[in-house]
Specification:
This protein has helices spanning 67-70, 204-209, and strands at 2-6, 9-13, 20-25, 36-43, 49-55, 81-86, 91-97, 107-111, 114-121, 124-130, 136-143, 159-161, 164-168, 180-184, 191-194, 229-231, 236-241, 246-253, 256-264, 272-274, 281-286, 298-305, 311-314, 318-319, 328-329, 335-338, 344-347. It has 354 residues and is mainly beta. Strands 20, 21, 22, 23 and 24 form a five-stranded antiparallel beta sheet that branches.
Length: 354
Amino acid sequence: MLYVIYGYHLSKLDPKTGEVVATVTLPTGDAAPANTSYNGFSASADGVIVGKSIYRQAGCTMQGPAALLRCPDPSAVPSSVLVTVDPKTMTVLNTVTLPGEVIARATVGRYQGKEYVYLFAQSGFIRYAIGPNGALTLDPSWTTGPLLTAGQTLGWATVVMGDWVLGQCNGVPASAPASVYAVNQADASKRFTVQPFANDPIPPAVKAAFRKQGPGGTPAVSWIPSTLSADPDTNLIYMLDALPGKIAALRLTPSGLETAWQVSQTTTEFIAIIGPQDRRAIVATSIPGAEIPGINKHDEVVWRNAATGEELARSARLPAMTPATMVQPSYAGNVLYPGLQGTLFKLLPAPQSR
């Protein structure tokens, strides 16, 4: 079956006909339903769906992701709720109120035979154990404590790579450079952090456009509307920042995180990792020319050698993509590009004639 989450509903569809088989209304916590959305979901090994709410400030009429950026005070919202849903009966199994607003999507990972939901909260990385019948239990033994420094903002979903949980901050515009975190699943006190773009300048036009977009109307220097991508086979982590307009590959070593390579490329989308291990490539959008991230009218798609950052191919200029989504891998080397206005492009790099 196909499952779709939208607003505060989760629907089950017949993948052959597209018919809606069942819909469950999800809890909205202390917010009005009209101000509630569930930004994605994950699932446990036995199929239990795990979702989490985010909110728009009461009285604000902004639609879509813009509500997280342009409402008068986007942080003036209730605590998020974490829910589990039985996909067969389409009923809510368990609901817990999280410690404050959590914009990050819920990430499910397995460690030493147990399944956990990992989240990036104001209090740092936290996790809930998933028990029988979707029960959710906070694990008080595993917490990083606060990670954010002055001017930084909460990040999006964490990523599990082997024994580590990875993430970055500044999911909404921030007035301090972004940090990347690697936290050990066995011991949350064992962790590394790095700021790969701390010394990179902001292009003047972008700097002017984001001069009041940081917390409290401060100038923003960092904005990462998606989360990082990780490749456990090659031990590389791919990180972006839309304001300096950079992508970097980081390597996790026994002594910390180090930069493998860095290139100039402005994107607001997730980075896809494709291809066999010995010919791995990454695919991401690139905002062309002097267009401003978040309000750009066009995108290009760029393929890079995942090990070196070398550009392999670049598409023609396309109508802008939906921000904070992804160029989706498809079959036989194709990728699918969902345009903001509802168009769908299929792209395939081809050798150039010489």
